[in-house]
Amino acid sequence: MNNVNASPLKKKKGGNLNTNYLVVIIAIVILLIAIIVGSLVFDNFFKLGTFTNLLINNAHIGISAVGMTLVIITGGIDLSVGAVVAIVTMICAYGSADPASTFGGLGLDPVVCMIISLVYGILIGAAMGCLIQFFDFPPFIATLAGMFFSRGSCYILSTQAITVERGNLIDTLGAWRLKFFTPEGGGFSVGTGEVDGKVIGNLSIPVFMFIVVVIIGILISQYTKFGRTVYAIGGNEQSAYLMGLPVKRTKVLVYTLNGLCSALAGIAFTFFMRSGSGLLCVGMEMDVIASVVIGGTLLTGGVGYVFGTVFGVLTLGLIQTFVTYASLNSWYTKIFVGVLLLFFIGLQRIIVNIADSKKVKVAG
Amino acid sequence: MQNPIILQMKGIDMQFPGVHALKEVDFTLRAGEVHTIMGENGAGKSTLIKCLTGVYQKGKGTILLDGKEINPKSTLDAQSLGISTVYQEVNLCPNLTVAENCFIGRQPKKAGFIDWKTMNKRTKELLKRFDIDIDVTKPLSTYTVAIQQMVAIARAIDIQCKVLILDEPTSSLDANEVKQLFKAMRSLKEEGMAIIFISHFLDQVFEISDRFTVLRNGELIGEYLVDEVTQYELVSKMVGHEIDDLSTLKRVQHTEAEMKEFLKAKQIGVAGSVQDIDLTLRKGEIVGFAGLLGSGRTETANMLFGVDPITKGSISINGKKVNLRKPSNAIKHNIAYCPEDRKRDGIIGDLSIRENIILAIQARQGIFKKISKKKAEELAQKYIKTLQIATPDADKKIGELSGGNQQKVILARWLATDPDLLILDEPTRGIDVGAKTEIQKLVLKLCEEGMSIVFISSEIEEVVRCSNRIVVMRDRKKVAELKGDDLEHDTILKTIAGGAKTNE
Amino acid sequence: MSNNKAPANAIKSKKKLNLNTQFIAGLVALALILLFNLIYEPGFFRISIVEGKLYGSIIDIINRCVPTMIISMGMTLVIATGGVDISVGAVAAISGAMVVSLIGYNFDSATGVTTTNMNMYLAILIALIVSTICGAWNGLLVSRLGIQPMVATLILMTAGRGIAQLITDGQIPRVYTEDFSFIAQGSIFAVPTGIYIALAVVLIVYAFTKLTAFGMLCESVGINASASRYSGINAKNIKLICYTICGLCAGIAGIHIASTVQGADANNAGLNIEMDAILAVVLGGTSMAGGKFYIWGTAVGALIIQALTTTIYSLGVPPEIIYVVKSLVVVIVVMLQSNLIKNLFKKIGSKSKKSSAAASV
């Protein structure tokens, strides 16, 4: 009955603190090396504009990756994010389009559309969470269903790609930039709208959304009971339950939260594209998962940092920038990302193994 | 001096399908004492504890905590009533920091956010009570199991617990760590905490306990103060004397010449587990492994079968040195092994009896030489008949059989490979007396036919009855090898209990 | 003699009753979809022969589900061992890119002469070897390095399409030779060739799992890895073989897709086919947790998915809405497999039994 005869060499999940940070540190180091190499190899690379563009182009991935980090820390996965982003672009673009326009449209207030988008994200997230928690769905299958549902629903709205009309609030917000510029007389200044001088970089609203989501993500994951329960579940779900933590509620909530993040990412992406289509962001979930892994989160759960994910997103974005700068063909991005993934997964595996073998010695 | 009674369990009765796990057991726990529940596997220790901690709902009987009747519905429920359990497998989260493991779920807060500083400070203070001074901001997994257990105990105590249950806490600790744990237990005892202790290590039990309750086969044998019994008496109470319905069994004794050496192990051991075991196994001889649970019996069997490859020493078969890195190596050398944990390591639940029986031969033959349906059915029918497996046909899933029949199927799986050496780890555990006799008879018959057999069992009677030679294990070491005249129940008991050393 | 025969018969008759309920549920679902089509469009089952080739909605469904069915065969084995392979779409793309690029079709419009660089069969062989290696790569990551299956195959899923594009140099190379088109679009005895290929793959996988011990060993590993190890099964090699077969299946499907479109679109060939394949396996009654697997169940699952798609097309609604229907089907099927519902049914069952017993008394 008591499992005493089990081998005393017990396998342990997770490494120690140093190794946990180590993966994040490696992600940061790789990002820095990449920046240095980029600066040396490419002329015109090391400048503010490169980095602000990096943020603008990847803000939606980043927003989504924050939610995904939490999901992966519980030991789950969410494949629906790309599809949820797509449907949100449709809700925003199609919903706010004038019914008299060529696409049809619903003529709703853009703010209402955004609220509907957020509600959709929350609901689909909660639904997937419930399927996983109460009906024992493998997260893979439940979120696959969520992905199919969201992707298909795009086409229920419209099969066309909808461009947001000029003057629409979404268009205005999407076009807004915080500009860094060199005024006529030299120096450095910040402004919006038309600026006098040479613009050397700018930030869009999605970038600020990204920053806010990251800050909230860090606060939630490190400084709330909910966040710590997420980690506990990833460490050992059974223990978490025995310690009296609300495991069920937390698991449903974490998918709900990720649904919300996906919806926010969708709104950010609508600002970025200023159009909506059911064809957008196919396979984006894999980019998001890849950035989370590169950022040091273990796919087995329990270990990871929202902070690290930020670097994962930037590293991934930087690869794209490189490929563009080197005028390589776009497919090299995918191959590089694959190689980087292999590197990080292998690295994590080695670290976990070392942590395990250390444990054996101590236990013996 | 009698301390006030904290917890009382009266007439606890539990029935599972086919097993009467607890028969009207009483248990009384007093404040400021360490009370050890003793008993071999299946004695009902775990069931009793599980009734108390709300894992099982007791069938009959009452539980009084501080004089009030309680009915814990779940572990959480029991915890909120003040009954906390610390298991051998520490039930904490290895990835969280020490401080967090102490306070998760009730973290101190400042302005709505978790106040890590206060939490770390309070954890440090809490652990100081156990003389532990560690960096509480490191993940739990960086520390030894001993410290992890201490953290678990600290957490339990800080949640206002009245009864602390320590379930096999010392199994994976070394001598120093055990000392550390016992020190903590003593200081808790002085503060008036009531502690229920479960362990198989006799020396430890005698060192720390104030009182024993002994269970056997779900029955209460008695409650004793530590001074009232010797180790020998305690072991004999735990092991008991089975009704001797097996007197007809006759041990086979081949002549020395007939018993050709099959396997010889020299100083084998695995890092962090059993050490320096010497062993010779011969054809036509049954070697019994006696010893309490956790004494290293199963670990030795695992080494012989390549489950835990040896890191020290050497094994030779038929005089040739062999390298057993995995079970398939051992099977190639005609070794067979019925593991102890039938459910985890034995049965393939969703496969049919027939498939379970041919599994090992099939694995040995490889993927492409499939055993024909006809041959498989023949084999299945043969063993269903000779082993009297109760089933309508060989298509039934093994998972749907009773424990005894499952065991017979596993036996059949190995007999089908026609092994030279058969290792049986607790082959009769959890099965009824009838099936038990059949299996013992079969073992003797196989030996007579010239098979070499290792027989591991917690029931000394059984080992004595079957074996030609008995290896006695204690605290992960081989302490004696008994033969011929030494094969007496009492001699073995004494050896297991460390009789030579104790106050006999 | 007669004594021996009786129990054998008993076993047989019992087996018939024991048919996998999931498989029957799948057949019923398929029948319902087809019935719906029949009512909606009475000519649904009509099959005609045009230019020596069969035409009709039914043929269309079978023909279109060929790639999914081929891949889902490999996927069944992988899932049976408790794993999953999400790189199959990318591997199919690599295989397609490989075969088309190697053949290197060239049409000189001035002379009207077509040339190819390589014999088609050799090109196919190389493409299949490459995709087998892709599968083995996944298998090594899973079995030897112990990486979670989903994570391990994520690597190739991400990099695979990039590799495929690298092979095609970002173009969509074309092959317009008759031989190559014949693979997917030709017909033998009026039956489209693709159907032969699918049937062959299904039969070979079925035979491989049933005529050798491989099927049983896979299930054994999927049901209880520890007990399998104690029985001497080399679980690592079993897993490796499963992933390798899965890669090969993806390669075959990739060639079929390339032949269908007469070219290799590295970006879109086999897009999302991993999801369909996994879905087909689950619909067929194999649990994602591993263990017992059902080759024919998977085949029916693949047909269900395609029948659904075709039905949506024929309804005239935007075909992409198929995703919504698929999601609902997945949820319903997996929910029926979940313990909560099973227990609920059991309760209802036992209650009705009790009440009927009471009534009979």
Inertia-based shape of chain C: globular
Number of strands of chain B: 22
> What percent of the residues of chain B sit in helical stretches (DSSP H or I)?
25-40%
Helix content of chain C: over 70%
Number of strands of chain C: 6
Number of helices of chain C: 16
Query: What structural class should be given to the helix and strand makeup of chain B?
Result: alpha/beta
Structural class of chain C: mainly alpha
Based on CA inertia axes, which overall geometry of chain B fits?
Answer: globular
CATH superfamily of the largest domain in chain B: P-loop containing nucleotide triphosphate hydrolases
Radius of gyration of chain B: 25 Å
Q: What features would you describe in this structure?
A:
The complex is a heterotrimer of chains A (364), B (504) and C (361). By secondary structure, chain A is mainly α. Chain A contains 13 helices and five strands. In chain A, the strands form two sheets. In chain A, strands 3-2-4 form a three-stranded antiparallel beta sheet. In chain A, strands 1-5 form a two-stranded antiparallel sheet. In chain A, helix 2 packs across helix 8 (225-235), helix 3 packs parallel to helix 5 (139-157) and helix 12 runs antiparallel to helix 13 (331-363). In chain B, helix 5 (145-158) runs parallel beside helix 6 (175-190), helix 12 crosses helix 13 (373-386) and helix 12 packs parallel to helix 14 (403-415). The longest helix of chain B is centred in the middle third of the chain and has 16 residues, at 175-190. Chain C is mainly alpha-helical and 361 residues long. Chains in contact: A-B, A-C, B-C.
List its salient traits.
heterotrimer, B: 504 residues, alpha/beta, Rossmann fold, 3 domains, 6-stranded mixed β-sheet, 17 helices, 22 strands, 34% helix, 25% strand, globular, disordered C terminus, C: 361 residues, mainly alpha, two-stranded antiparallel ribbon, 16 helices, 6 strands, disordered N terminus
Write the layout of secondary structure elements.
The complex is a heterotrimer of chains A (364), B (504) and C (361).
Chain A: H1 17-41, H2 48-73, H3 81-96, H4 110-134, H5 139-157, E1 162-163, H6 169-175, E2 177-182, E3 189-192, E4 198-204, H7 205-223, H8 225-235, H9 237-242, H10 247-273, E5 275-276, H11 284-294, H12 306-325, H13 331-363
Chain B: E1 5-16, E2 19-30, E3 34-38, H1 45-52, E4 60-65, E5 68-70, H2 75-81, E6 83-87, H3 98-103, E7 109-110, E8 113-114, H4 116-128, H5 145-158, E9 163-167, H6 175-190, E10 194-198, H7 202-208, E11 211-216, E12 219-225, H8 231-239, E13 261-269, E14 277-282, E15 286-290, H9 297-304, E16 312-317, E17 320-322, H10 327-332, E18 335-338, H11 342-346, H12 353-365, H13 373-386, H14 403-415, E19 421-425, H15 433-448, E20 452-456, H16 460-466, E21 469-474, E22 477-483, H17 489-496
Parallel strand pairs in B: 3-10, 3-11, 6-9, 9-10, 15-20, 15-21, 18-19, 19-20
Antiparallel strand pairs in B: 1-2, 1-4, 4-5, 7-8, 11-12, 13-14, 13-16, 16-17, 21-22
Helix pairs in contact in B: 5-6, 12-13, 12-14
Chain C: H1 2-17, H2 21-40, E1 48-50, E2 53-55, H3 57-64, H4 66-80, H5 88-103, E3 106-108, E4 113-115, H6 120-143, H7 149-168, H8 178-185, E5 187-188, E6 191-192, H9 193-211, H10 214-223, H11 225-230, H12 235-261, H13 273-283, H14 295-315, H15 322-337, H16 339-360
Antiparallel strand pairs in C: 1-2, 3-4, 5-6
